[in-house]
Amino acid sequence: MRIGVLALQGAFAEHAARLSSLGAETFEIRKAADLDGRFDGLVIPGGESTTMTKLLHDLGLFEILRERISGGLPVMGTCAGLIVLARRVEGGVPCLATMDITAVRNAYGRQLGSFETVAPFAGVGEVPMTFIRAPCVRDPGEGVAVLAEVDGRIVAVREGNQLALAFHPELDADTRIHEFFLAMVAGN
Ligand code: GLN
């Protein structure tokens, strides 16, 4: 399996390291030419969604990635990556807009927005979750499955080939969320 990790800014190195440790081949996506080869999945990491959105446009990656995801490419977006995938963004501007969710930016407030917890994740079990100025999900569309909630807020969703998480699984020692994504890729 060959997984591209969007490497414009943010927590991309940790995703690549985790996926490699699980046996996947990874490569970094920094420019359109990086997308020339065959690949089976995509990770959009945490970081800052406004900056990432601007870079996706400036570097000519926006259209290609939106087409690939719409065409069924398995994708995992974490934190800012969730915002990048969302069709509607509260407190920001939609980017790829491939997923039928509303992302609420900085849903926990800017100061108290960083915390760790453990919560059930559908089909996986109790997993550690690290939130850093995290968004949450509102108004999931009909085709969207809610996979995890924390304190009444939706923090993980799946819509077909798209997985979006408000937390940072690449920062915890637990590998099961990345395994879950690789199983999605394998099943595609
Ligand atoms: N608050 C950031 C944003 O709106 C996301 C934070 C993160 O990815 N850790 O883009």
From TrEMBL:
The active site is at 79 (nucleophile), 168 (charge relay system), 170 (charge relay system). The keyword Magnesium does not apply. One of its GO terms (molecular function) is glutaminase activity. It comes from the Archaea. Pathway: Cofactor biosynthesis; pyridoxal 5'-phosphate biosynthesis. L-glutamine binds at residues 47-49, 105, 132-133. It catalyses: aldehydo-D-ribose 5-phosphate + D-glyceraldehyde 3-phosphate + L-glutamine = pyridoxal 5'-phosphate + L-glutamate + phosphate + 3 H2O + H(+); L-glutamine + H2O = L-glutamate + NH4(+). The keyword Repeat does not apply. Belongs to the glutaminase PdxT/SNO family. This is Pyridoxal 5'-phosphate synthase subunit PdxT. The lineage of its organism: Archaea, Methanobacteriati, Methanobacteriota, Stenosarchaea group, Methanomicrobia.
